[in-house]
Structure to design on (1481 residues):
C-alpha cells in the first residue's frame, strides 16, 4: 500500500509544477522577455517534470495493479484512490473541496496530457520565435494605414500554457464535480486568453469571447446539474469522503448505484449497501448524507444538465460553433487545447461520471454525437482554411467519442480520445508547420509542398492515415483504426439491439468515408500538385528541429497507440479496461424509453461483429480515399464543377449549416434587444416615474407654497395688521403730556369712585355717615 | 344759626383747595404754575390730615387730643419745602436749557 | 468587557476625531490633509486588523499587551464579542451598545480596508480637499458604526450619519449632473430610512423585555440599568431597542410581535416588509435601484468605490442582522418576495449592464446584478418542504455573505479601474476605447483580474459566493436556480464584451490618446491590493468562512428551530399555511433518521 500512497503526492507535485511556472512567469514576465527564451524553458521544464512524475506515478500504480487480462480475479480488487487535499467550504455534511480521484483513467490522462503538452511546449519554441522580438502583425491595419508593430509576448504565451497545464491536470484529477467545474472554467479561461492571444486582431478577440460565452451556456447546464446532485445527495464527491469532524459520507456513485429503478425507494436498498461494503472491506462504515431526494427522474435531469457542460466544452452540436472560430489562436494552442486535451475534457467528464448516467442520457449522448460527427464532417468537406478543416474534423471525431460512450462503449470512446489526441495534435502541429512556412491558412494558396517540407508532409500523411482509420482489416493498423473500429463495433451492436436507432450506425459509417475524403483532400491540396501561389511556394521551407521533432514523436504514437506492447497484454485499451465502469441499467430495459437497451461492451468484442465492422469501415475509408484521389490527388474531376452542380448544398455547407446566422437571430440579437429594452425601461419607465414623482412633488410644493402665502400667511398677516392698528389707535392716548395722564387718572378715579358708590355704596356711606 | 365748625367743613376747604390745585396742574403749561398746583394739592392734603385728627371724631379716645395729624403736616411742609427747592432748581435749569418755562417744549425724550 | 467597548468605540470614532483634527489644518495644505486622511484610515484598518490577529500572551505583565490580548476576536465563536451596553438615553432605554460577531467582522474589515484604498485613491480629488477629507472621515465613522451598533436606535443614528456626508460628497465633488444624482440618492435612501424608522417604532412599542426568560435577558447584554429594571415587578412594559433582545423576543413562542396590527398581518410581517424595503433600497434591488447608476456615474472615483464596496453591503447586512432574526414570521411568509426581487435584480441588472455605453454605468448595473445574488441567497429559505435540514440554507446565507465581501472587492476594483482611465482621458464612452492593453499592460492585467473576479471565475473571489447561492437557490426553487444560473451567461457576456471593447483591439479610438500613461505607483498599489485580495479570497475562502460561518450558522439554526416549532404548532392546531405542514409527521421521522448516524 505504501507505493500506492505515494501516487497522490506525485500527482500533486506534477499538478503544482505548471502552477508554479505560471505564477513565476506572471510575476516576472516583462523581465523574462528581455532574457529571451527563459520563460519558455521554465514552462517546458515544469510540464516535462509533470510528465516524468506522472509516468512514475503510473508505474507505481500499474506495479501494484498489473494489467493482467484477468485482473478481476487478482488478489486485491482495484479501488480508486480518493481523498481531499484542500477544503474550500464546509456546511454540515456538505463539503466543497479539492482532492484527488485516481484510477487508471486518471493516470492515463495525466500521462497523455503532460506528454502532449511537453511536446507542444517544445514545438512552440520554434513556432512562437517571432514573439521574441518586436512583431509586425500584417493582419492588423491601423487607422493610419500602417500595419501594427508591437512588442513580442513570448513569456505571456508560455504563461498561459502553464496555466492551462495546471488547469487541465486539475480537471483530470478532480475527485468531485465542483472541482471539475472549477478547472473546467479555468481551462475555459485559458482557452479564452490563448484564442485571443493576438489581442489586436478583432477576429481573435471576438472568437475568444464566443468560445467563452458558448462554453458558459454549457456551464449553465452544468451548474444546474451540480445543484441538482448537491441538493439531492448532499455531496458532489464521486467517492466516499470525510468531513473535518471525522464523519464519513457516501459519494455520488454510491447514490447512483442505489437507484436501480424509478420505483425503488428513496433510501438505497439494503442489498446494494452491503454489497458495497463487501467489495470494499477497508471502506469505513458509510453514512448517508443529506436528504435523500435523489430519484431516477432527477438523475436523468442531472445527467442531461451535466451533459450540457460536456457539449459546450467538447464542441458538440448544438454548441459546436465556437471551435472553428477558436482557430484564431496560435496553432500550438489549437493543437493542445482545441484538439488534444481541453475539448476532450467533455468526453472525459462523460466517461468519469459514467456511473451516474442513465440510459436515457446515454441515448441523448449517442444521438448528439452522431449528429455532430456527420454535420462536422460535411462542413469539413468544403472548408478551405487548413485549420478550419482540422477543427471540424476535431468536432467530428469528438462526436465519434460521444457516440461510443453513448452506445455503451466506455473503453471504445475513451480509447478514441487518446488516439485522437495523438494524431490530431500531430495534424495540427503539421498544419502549424505549413502555416509557419507559408504565412497563410488558405489551402488554395498552397500545393506541392511535399518537395519543400518532406518531414511535415510525411508526418501529416501518417496523421491522415491514422484519422481515416487506415489499417489492414482484422490484423493491425494505425491507432485510429483500432479505436474507431471499437466504437463502430459497439455502435453496430447497439443498432442490432435497438433497431429504431439503426441510422446511427450508417451515419457513422458514412462519416468515416467523409473523414477519409476530407483528410486526404487536405493533404493533396497542401502537399501534392503544382504550387498554386509561386510567391508563397518560393518562401516556403522546412521548419526547424524544435518543430519537426515533436511531429516525428507524435507520428510514432499516432501509429502505435493502438497496439499492445509486444509480448504482453499491455495496451492502451487494456489499461482503460482496468478502469472501466458500467452505466446504470446496462443490458436491461430502460424505464423511460421503453425498449432501449444499452448493450454490454464486452459483447462487441465478438469476432463476427468485429470482422463485419472492420470490413465495412475499411470499405468506407477506401471509398473516401478514392474520391479524394479522384478529385484532388489525380484531378480526374474538377471539384469546382461539382460544386457548381450542387451549388445549393455547397453553399449550405460552406456557410456551416448557417448555425452562426441562426444563433445570431435566435439568441444574440434577442438578448441584446432585451438588454436595450431593460436599459430603456430603466430610463424611460423607472427613472421617468421617479423623476415625474419628483416633479409632481414639486408641483405639490408649489401649490402648498401658494396656499401658504394666501391662506396661512394671509391669516397671520391680517391678525398682525389688526393688532398693529390697535396699537396705532392706542398710541394716540400716549401724548407724553403729564397733564393728560393726570387728567385721565383723575377722570378714572372719579369714575371709579362714582361707579363704586353706585354699586357698592362706597364713600356715600362715608359722606352720609359724616353728615 | 351757625353750627360749629366740624371736620366736614375742613374737608370741604380741603376739597376746594385740592380741586383748585388739580385744575391748576391740568391746565397750566408754565412750570411755575404747575409747582403752585402741586403745592395747593399738598396743602389740601395737610388740611385733611388736620381735619381727621380732630378730637370730635374720636369722642371715646383717652386722652382726647392726639397731635398725629399735625405732626404729619409738619413733615409734609418740610418735604414740600424741600421739593419746592428741588423743583425750582429743575425749573431754573429747564429755563436755562430751553429758554422757556413751558413744559411742553421739553419733549426731547418723547419717542 | 468594557475594554472591548472602548476599543470598538475608538475604531468607530477615530475617523471622526481625525475629521475634527483636520478642521484645524489650513485648507491649502492639501498634501498634509491627504496624508493625514490616509494615515487615519490606515490606523483604523490596523486597529480592526487587530481583531483577527492571534492573541498576545494572555498572562502578560504589561497592561497594554493585556488589553491588546483582550480585544482580539476569537475565531469560530458564533456569539457576539466585546458586546457591552452603556445607557445613553435612559428614559427610552436607548443604549450605547457596540459589539462584533462573525457577520459584522468581515464587513468591518472590508470597510476599513476599502477606506484605506479609497483614501489613497482620493489623490485625484483636487477641489476643496479639506472639506472632502473631513466628510470622507465622517462617512467612515458612520459606516463602521452601522456595522458595530447593536442598539437599533444607535444603528439608525449611524445610518443617518453616513447619509449626509455621502450626499455632499456626491453633490459637491461629483460630475456634471451631481446635484440630480445626489438628491436622488438622498431621497431614495431617506425613504428607506423613514420606513425603517416606522418599523423600529413598531417593534419598540411591541417589545417587552420582561417577557424574556432571565437567561435570555442576560444573553442579550442588556445594560445594568435595564437589567435591574426588568427584575423589578411592574405592570408597565419595558420596551427595548436592543437588537439581540428584539431577536430573542421575535423568536420566542407567543412572540409579542405576532399581534396583528393592520390588514390581519402581524407586527413581525409589517416590520419585516418595511425594514426589507428600507434595506433593499440600499442594496439596491430592482425596482428601487435607479439611484445607483446615477450616483455612481456622478460620484468621484473613491466615493464610487466606497458606495459600491461598502454602502450597498449595509442593505444585505441589515437583512441578515435585523430582518430575519427579529421578524422570522415575516421572513418566512415573504421569502418568495425576497427571492423574486433578488432574481429580478440579477437578470435585469445584467441585461441593463449589457446595453450601457457608459463604462461606469455598466459597472453600476453589474453591481445591481451581483447584489441580486446576495438578496437571492438571503431570501432562499432552503428548508425543503417537510425537511428542516438547514445546511442548504446555511450554504445560501454564507454564500450571500461571501458574495457581499467578494463584491466589495471586485466592484471597488472595477470602479477604481474605470476611474484610472477617466482620470487620463476624461471620458467613459465604451465605444471610444480599445487597445489599452498595448499602452498600459500592467493596468490591463490587473483590470482583467478584477473583471474576472466579477465574472465569477473560479479561483477568484466572485465564484464562491455565486455558486453557493445558486446551489442553495436550487434546493428552494428549481426555477429560481435556472434563471440564476442563466445570469452567469449574461455576466460573461457583458464583461467579456466590455474587456474586448476597452482593453483589447489594435488601437485606442478616443480622445486624449497621449494621456494614456502607465499606472503610477500609488494607482498600482491600489489595484494590485484589490487583485491580490480577489485571488486570496478566491482560493482561500476559509479566510472569511472561518469567522463568518459560525455566526451565520447560529443565526440559521435559531431560525430553523423557530420554523420547526411554528410548523408543529400549526400542525397541532390544524391550521395549514404551507405544504410543509402536510408532511410534518414525516418530518419528524426523517429528522430522527438523519440525526441518528451523526451522533
Amino acid at each position: 500500500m505504501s507505493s500506492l500512497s505515494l501516487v497522490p503526492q506525485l500527482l500533486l507535485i506534477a499538478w503544482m509544477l505548471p502552477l508554479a511556472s505560471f505564477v513565476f512567469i506572471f510575476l516576472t514576465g516583462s523581465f523574462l522577455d528581455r532574457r529571451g527564451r527563459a520563460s519558455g524553458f521554465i514552462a517546458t521544464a515544469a510540464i516535462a517534470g509533470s510528465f516524468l512524475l506522472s509516468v512514475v506515478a503510473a508505474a507505481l500504480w500499474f506495479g501494484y495493479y498489473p494489467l493482467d487480462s484477468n485482473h478481476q480475479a487478482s488478489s486485491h480488487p482495484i479501488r480508486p484512490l480518493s481523498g481531499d487535499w484542500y477544503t474550500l467550504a464546509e456546511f454540515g455534511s456538505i463539503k466543497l473541496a479539492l482532492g484527488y480521484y485516481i484510477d487508471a483513467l486518471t493516470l492515463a490522462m495525466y500521462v497523455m496530457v503532460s506528454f502532449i503538452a511537453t511536446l507542444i511546449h517544445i514545438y512552440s519554441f520554434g513556432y512562437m520565435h517571432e514573439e521574441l522580438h518586436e512583431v509586425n502583425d500584417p493582419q492588423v491595419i491601423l487607422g493610419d494605414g500602417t500595419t501594427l508593430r508591437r512588442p513580442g509576448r513570448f513569456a505571456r504565451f508560455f504563461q498561459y500554457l502553464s496555466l492551462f497545464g495546471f488547469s487541465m491536470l486539475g480537471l483530470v484529477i478532480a475527485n468531485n464535480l465542483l472541482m471539475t467545474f472549477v478547472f473546467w472554467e479555468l481551462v475555459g479561461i485559458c482557452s479564452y486568453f490563448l484564442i485571443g492571444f493576438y489581442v489586436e486582431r478583432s477576429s481573435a478577440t471576438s472568437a475568444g469571447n464566443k468560445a467563452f460565452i458558448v462554453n458558459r451556456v454549457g456551464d449553465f447546464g452544468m451548474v444546474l446539474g451540480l445543484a441538482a446532485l448537491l441538493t439531492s445527495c448532499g455531496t458532489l464527491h464521486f467517492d466516499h469522503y470525510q468531513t473535518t469532524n471525522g464523519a464519513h459520507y457516501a459519494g455520488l456513485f454510491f447514490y447512483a448505484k442505489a437507484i436501480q429503478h424509478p420505483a425503488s425507494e428513496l433510501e438505497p436498498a439494503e442489498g446494494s449497501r452491503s454489497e458495497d461494503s463487501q467489495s470494499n472491506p477497508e471502506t469505513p462504515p458509510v453514512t448517508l448524507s443529506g436528504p435523500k431526494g435523489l430519484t431516477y427522474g432527477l438523475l436523468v435531469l442531472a445527467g442531461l444538465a451535466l451533459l450540457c457542460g460536456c457539449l459546450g466544452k467538447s464542441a458538440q452540436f448544438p454548441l459546436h460553433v465556437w471551435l472553428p472560430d477558436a482557430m484564431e489562436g496560435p496553432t500550438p494552442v489549437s493543437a493542445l487545447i482545441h484538439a488534444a486535451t481541453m475539448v476532450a475534457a467533455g468526453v472525459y467528464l462523460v466517461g468519469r461520471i459514467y456511473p451516474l448516467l442513465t440510459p436515457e442520457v446515454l441515448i441523448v449522448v449517442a444521438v448528439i454525437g452522431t449528429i455532430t460527427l456527420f454535420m462536422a464532417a460535411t462542413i469539413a468537406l468544403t472548408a478551405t482554411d487548413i485549420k478550419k478543416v482540422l477543427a471540424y474534423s476535431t468536432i467530428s471525431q469528438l462526436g465519434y467519442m460521444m457516440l461510443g460512450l453513448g452506445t455503451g462503449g466506455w473503453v471504445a470512446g475513451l480509447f478514441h480520445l487518446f488516439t485522437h489526441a495523438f494524431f490530431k495534435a500531430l495534424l495540427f502541429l503539421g498544419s502549424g508547420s505549413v502555416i509557419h512556412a507559408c504565412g497563410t491558412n488558405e489551402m488554395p494558396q498552397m500545393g506541392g509542398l511535399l518537395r519543400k517540407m518532406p518531414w511535415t508532409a510525411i508526418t501529416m500523411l501518417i496523421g491522415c492515415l491514422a484519422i481515416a482509420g487506415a489499417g489492414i482489416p482484422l490484423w493491425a493498423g494505425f491507432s485510429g483504426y483500432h479505436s474507431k473500429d471499437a466504437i463502430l463495433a459497439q455502435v453496430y451492436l447497439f443498432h442490432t439491439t435497438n433497431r429504431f436507432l439503426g441510422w446511427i450506425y450508417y451515419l457513422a459509417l458514412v462519416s468515416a468515408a467523409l473523414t477519409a475524403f476530407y483528410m486526404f483532400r487536405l493533404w493533396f491540396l497542401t502537399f501534392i500538385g503544382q504550387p498554386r501561389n509561386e510567391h508563397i511556394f518560393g518562401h516556403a521551407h522546412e521548419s526547424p528541429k524544435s518543430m519537426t521533432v515533436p511531429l516525428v514523436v507524435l507520428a510514432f504514437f499516432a501509429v502505435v497507440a493502438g497496439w499492445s506492447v509486444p509480448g504482453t497484454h499491455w495496451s492502451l485499451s487494456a489499461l482503460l479496461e482496468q478502469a472501466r465502469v458500467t452505466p446504470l441499467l446496462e443490458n436491461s430495459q430502460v424505464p423511460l424509453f421503453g425498449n432501449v437497451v444499452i448493450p454490454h461492451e464486452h459483447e462487441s468484442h465478438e469476432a463476427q461483429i468485429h470482422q463485419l465492422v472492420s470490413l465495412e469501415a475499411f470499405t468506407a475509408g477506401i471509398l473516401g480515399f478514392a474520391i479524394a484521389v479522384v478529385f484532388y490527388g489525380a484531378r480526374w474531376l474538377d471539384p469546382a464543377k461539382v460544386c457548381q452542380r450542387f451549388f445549393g448544398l455547397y453553399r449550405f455547407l460552406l456557410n456551416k449549416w448557417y448555425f452562426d446566422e441562426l444563433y445570431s437571430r435566435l439568441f444574440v440579437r434577442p438578448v441584446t434587444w432585451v438588454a436595450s429594452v431593460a436599459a430603456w425601461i430603466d430610463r424611460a419607465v423607472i427613472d421617468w416615474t421617479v423623476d415625474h414623482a419628483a416633479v409632481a412633488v414639486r408641483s405639490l410644493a408649489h401649490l402648498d407654497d401658494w396656499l401658504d402665502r394666501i391662506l396661512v400667511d394671509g391669516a397671520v398677516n391680517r391678525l398682525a395688521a389688526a393688532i398693529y392698528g390697535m396699537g396705532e389707535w392706542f398710541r394716540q392716548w400716549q401724548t407724553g403730556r403729564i397733564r393728560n395722564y393726570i387728567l385721565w387718572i383723575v377722570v378714572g378715579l372719579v369714575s371709579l369712585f362714582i361707579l363704586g358708590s353706585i354699586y357698592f355704596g362706597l364713600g356715600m356711606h362715608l359722606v352720609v355717615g359724616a353728615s | 344759626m351757625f353750627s360749629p365748625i366740624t371736620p366736614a367743613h375742613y374737608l370741604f376747604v380741603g376739597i376746594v383747595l385740592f380741586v383748585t390745585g388739580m385744575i391748576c396742574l391740568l391746565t397750566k403749561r408754565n412750570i411755575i404754575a404747575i409747582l403752585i398746583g402741586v403745592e395747593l394739592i399738598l396743602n389740601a392734603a395737610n388740611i385733611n390730615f388736620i381735619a381727621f385728627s380732630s378730637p370730635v371724631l374720636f369722642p371715646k379716645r383717652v386722652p382726647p387730643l392726639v397731635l398725629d395729624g399735625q405732626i404729619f403736616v409738619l413733615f409734609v411742609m418740610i418735604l414740600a419745602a424741600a421739593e419746592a427747592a428741588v423743583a425750582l432748581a429743575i425749573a431754573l435749569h429747564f429755563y436755562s436749557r430751553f429758554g422757556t418755562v413751558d413744559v411742553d417744549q421739553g419733549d426731547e425724550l418723547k419717542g | 468587557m468594557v475594554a472591548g467597548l472602548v476599543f470598538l468605540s475608538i475604531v468607530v470614532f477615530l475617523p471622526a476625531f481625525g475629521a475634527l483634527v483636520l478642521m484645524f489644518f489650513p485648507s491649502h495644505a492639501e498634501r498634509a490633509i491627504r496624508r493625514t486622511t490616509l494615515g487615519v484610515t490606515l490606523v483604523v484598518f490596523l486597529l480592526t486588523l487587530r481583531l483577527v490577529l492571534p492573541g498576545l500572551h494572555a498572562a502578560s505583565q504589561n497592561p497594554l499587551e493585556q488589553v491588546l490580548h483582550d480585544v482580539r476576536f476569537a475565531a469560530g465563536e458564533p456569539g457576539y464579542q466585546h458586546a457591552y451596553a452603556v445607557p445613553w438615553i435612559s428614559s427610552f432605554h436607548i443604549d450605547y451598545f457596540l459589539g462584533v460577531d462573525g457577520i459584522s467582522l468581515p464587513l468591518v474589515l472590508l470597510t476599513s480596508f476599502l477606506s484605506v484604498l479609497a483614501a489613497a485613491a482620493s489623490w485625484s480629488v483636487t477641489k476643496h480637499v479639506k472639506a472632502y477629507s473631513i466628510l470622507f472621515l465622517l462617512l467612515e465613522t458612520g459606516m463602521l458604526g452601522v456595522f458595530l451598533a447593536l442598539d437599533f436606535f444607535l444603528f439608525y443614528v449611524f445610518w443617518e450619519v453616513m447619509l449626509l456626508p455621502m450626499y455632499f460628497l456626491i453633490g459637491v465633488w461629483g460630475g456634471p449632473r451631481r446635484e440630480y444624482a445626489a438628491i436622488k440618492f438622498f431621497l431614495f435612501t431617506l425613504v428607506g430610512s423613514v420606513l425603517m424608522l416606522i418599523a423600529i417604532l413598531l417593534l419598540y412599542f411591541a417589545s417587552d423585555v420582561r417577557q424574556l426568560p432571565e437567561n435570555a435577558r442576560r444573553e442579550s447584554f442588556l445594560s445594568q440599568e435595564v437589567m435591574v429594571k426588568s427584575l423589578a415587578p411592574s405592570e408597565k412594559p419595558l420596551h427595548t431597542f436592543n437588537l439581540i433582545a428584539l431577536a430573542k423576543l421575535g423568536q420566542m413562542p407567543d412572540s409579542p410581535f405576532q399581534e396583528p396590527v393592520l390588514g390581519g398581518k402581524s407586527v413581525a410581517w409589517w416590520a419585516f416588509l418595511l425594514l426589507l424595503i428600507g434595506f433593499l433600497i440600499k442594496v439596491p434591488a430592482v425596482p428601487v435601484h435607479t439611484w445607483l447608476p446615477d450616483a455612481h456615474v456622478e460620484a468621484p472615483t473613491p466615493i464610487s468605490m466606497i458606495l459600491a464596496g461598502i454602502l450597498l453591503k449595509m442593505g444585505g447586512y441589515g437583512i441578515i442582522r435585523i430582518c430575519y432574526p427579529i421578524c422570522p414570521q415575516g421572513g418566512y411568509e415573504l421569502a418568495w418576495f425576497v427571492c423574486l426581487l433578488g432574481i429580478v435584480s440579477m437578470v435585469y441588472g445584467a441585461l441593463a449592464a449589457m446595453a450601457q455605453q457608459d463604462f461606469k454605468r455598466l459597472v453600476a448595473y453589474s453591481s445591481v446584478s451581483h447584489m441580486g445574488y446576495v438578496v437571492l441567497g438571503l431570501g432562499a429559505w432552503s428548508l425543503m418542504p417537510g425537511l428542516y435540514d438547514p445546511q442548504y440554507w446555511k450554504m445560501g446565507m454564507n454564500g450571500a455573505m461571501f458574495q457581499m465581501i467578494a463584491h466589495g472587492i471586485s466592484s471597488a476594483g472595477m470602479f477604481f479601474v474605470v476611474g484610472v482611465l477617466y482620470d487620463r482621458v476624461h471620458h467613459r464612452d465604451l465605444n471610444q476605447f480599445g487597445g489599452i492593453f498595448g499602452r498600459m499592460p500592467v493596468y490591463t492585467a490587473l483590470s482583467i483580474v478584477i473583471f474576472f473576479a466579477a465574472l465569477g471565475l473560479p479561483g477568484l473571489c466572485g465564484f464562491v459566493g455565486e455558486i453557493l447561492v445558486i446551489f442553495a437557490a436550487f434546493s428552494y426553487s428549481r426555477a429560481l436556480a435556472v434563471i440564476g444560473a442563466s445570469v452567469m451567461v449574461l455576466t460573461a457576456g457583458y464583461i467579456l464584451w466590455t474587456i474586448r471593447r476597452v482593453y483589447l483591439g489594435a488601437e485606442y479610438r478616443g480622445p486624449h490618446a497621449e494621456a494614456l500613461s502607465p499606472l503610477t505607483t500609488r494607482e498600482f498599489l491600489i489595484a494590485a491590493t484589490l487583485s491580490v485580495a480577489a485571488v486570496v479570497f478566491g482560493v482561500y475562502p476559509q479566510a472569511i468562512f472561518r469567522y463568518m460561518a459560525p455566526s451565520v450558522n447560529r443565526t440559521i439554526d435559531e431560525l430553523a428551530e423557530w420554523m420547526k416549532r411554528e410548523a408543529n404548532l400549526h400542525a397541532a392546531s390544524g391550521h395549514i399555511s404551507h405544504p410543509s405542514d402536510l408532511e410534518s409527521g414525516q418530518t419528524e421521522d426523517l429528522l430522527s433518521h438523519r440525526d441518528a448516524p451523526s451522533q
Remarks:
- The CA atoms of residues 94 and 100 of chain B lie 7 Å apart.
